[in-house]
Structures are given as C-alpha cells and as structure tokens.
Amino acid sequence: MNIEDLRVFKEVAKEGNITKTANNLNFVQSNVTAKMKRIEQKYGTKLFYRHKHGVTLTSPGKILLSYTEQVLQLMDEVEKKLKSSAPSGTLSIGTMETTAASRLPDILSVYHEQYPEVELALRTGTTEELIESSLNREIDGAFVAGEVNHPELEELEVFEEELVLISKKNILFSLDFNQLKNQIIIVFKSGCFYRGIFEKWLKSEGIIPTKIMELNTLDGVIGCVKAGLGIALITKSVADRLHQSENIKQFTLPKEYGMISTKFINHKDIVKTAAFREFMKGISFGACSNKP
After folding, report:
1. Does 11 share its domain with 128?
2. Fewer CB within 10 Å, N side or C side of the chain?
3. Is residue 124 within 8 Å of residue 258, measured between CB atoms?
C-alpha cells in the first residue's frame, strides 16, 4: 500500500462507485478494485459494502477515511513546503564565542526580520570544533577564524577582526614582556584559533606561558580579566563594547598577529535550502560592503 492507494480510496469513498472512480482517475476498473482489496488485506477488515448501486463505507472504512484525509493533507503540506522557494524550516549556524557576541546579533536580527518562518539554531564552539561539525554535516555552516583550506568545505571571507590584549588597568601599563612573563594567561579551551595566535605571539617574544587559566565562555574570560586574575586575547570588536567604567585596558598586537580573517564555511554537499541560500546572500553582501 502507498499514498496513491489512499488517494484512490478517498475518491472511491467520495464517489461511492468504483467504475466512476476509475473514469475520474483514468484507471482501468480492475486496477481500482485491486487497490481497494490491497488496503482491506493490509488492515484485515472490510472497508466497503458492495451493492448494485456501487459501494458504501463500513464503520472501519469511515475511520480509515478520516485518517486518510489527515494523511493526504499533511503530505500536500509537506510537498508545498519542500517545493516552496520561500525560506522556512531550521537553519543551524555554528560560531565562535567572540563572533556570537559582537557580529552575529545584527546579522541574525536582520535575517529574522526578513524570514520569520525560519527557525534559527545557534551552536558555539572553537574553530576546530566547528570545522569538525561542518564536515560531519551536523550544522549548515559556521563562522571560523583563519585559513581552512579543506577540500570538502566551501569558505567565504566575511570580515576581518583585530585582536587586542586586555587586562585590568592596574595590572599592565604597557606591553612590557617582563610583566607578561608573570601573568596568568586566560584562554579558551584547546582548539580555539585565537588561543593558538596568543601562544604563538608570546613564544615569538620568548615567553612560554606557565600559568594558564582555561575557560569555556567569553563572559568567563572577561569576568576573570575584570577581577584582575590575568590577561586575555579577544577581538577589538568585543573589547570596544566594554564600558570604560569596567576598568579594562586594551593593547594592540603587532599586525602579523593582530589581524585575523573570519570565514563562513559549509560542507560542499549539504542540502542548500532556500533558508541557507538567503543567509548566504546576506553575509556575502555584508562581506562585499566591508571590503575597501
């Protein structure tokens, strides 16, 4: 039994006549009769009373008709949704914590206003985790840092971030590397691209961090810096949002370490729904408008 059988069953129930149903659907009568027998065998019950004027539904037949109408309505709705060009359904986006805090609110706000039927699902993680999730098609795409260059992934550069060192104002007065040697380095967990840049920069200055505090959230990192527990590397777009009264000081890094591109990546073989295509149009336009 299949959906076509149910559509034929509904037509027979409406017409009360197998011959007329066959004519309406351009089927031979024996084909319609065979479909009705197949359904009766499937459910092990008689669905029609046969008489000289045609057929009439039995009590089980009336029950099946009620459910058949619901099933066919749902199938019609599914077909319309899947064939519709209007964005709908779920769009799952991965992002780094810093991007979620500084860049995504505006992007997602505009998108949601334009396409309220799309359910947005957000997942935060390190660049390493987000690349893995994209490769496994667990998410539709993700904002990550640095170069990716994976043969299974497509990537679009969307904006460039400046990284800055932050500390409580009375902890560091300048980028004095003698002072840095004695500071606790507050970082995200392993796999964070910015953490890798931080460690690479310190190593270039002959500093091997021995005091490391590893946290999972941006709020946690900033909170510990505010408390004077150590120093951290974050994007300037996030640091600039910290109010002066929060007693945080910024320090600029050398350009070779301080300027990092953010890319949007997705698996080449994901199903690119209308919701996904419109999201890509939005961030592509934003990427173009950010270029000189």
Report:
1. no
2. C
3. no
Q: What is the pLDDT of residues 79-104, one digit of tens each?
A: 877 776 678 889 999 999 999 999 99
pLDDT score of 290: 54
User: φ, ψ for residue 230 (rounded to 5)?
Assistant: 170, -165
CB atoms within 10 A of CB 200: 11
In the predicted structure, residue 292 carries a pLDDT above the cut 50: no
Structure tokens at 187: 């970082």
Let me know whether 247 and 266 are in one domain: no
The pTM of this model reads: 0.71
Q: At what angle do helices 18-25 and 3-15 cross, to 10 degrees?
A: 120
Q: Which tokens sit at 192?
A: 């964070």
Q: What is the pLDDT of residues 135-175, one digit of tens each?
A: 999 999 999 999 899 999 999 999 999 999 999 988 877 77
Same-domain pairing of 154 and 271: yes
Bridge partners for 265 per DSSP: 142, 155
Domain that holds residue 109: 89-160+260-289
d(CA 1, CA 6): 8
Q: Give the domain CATH number at 134.
A: 3.40.190.10
Q: Do 168 and 255 fall into the same domain?
A: yes
What digits encode the pLDDT tens for the residues 182-206?
889 999 988 899 999 999 999 988 8
Q: What is the pLDDT of residues 234-257, one digit of tens each?
A: 999 999 888 766 788 899 998 889
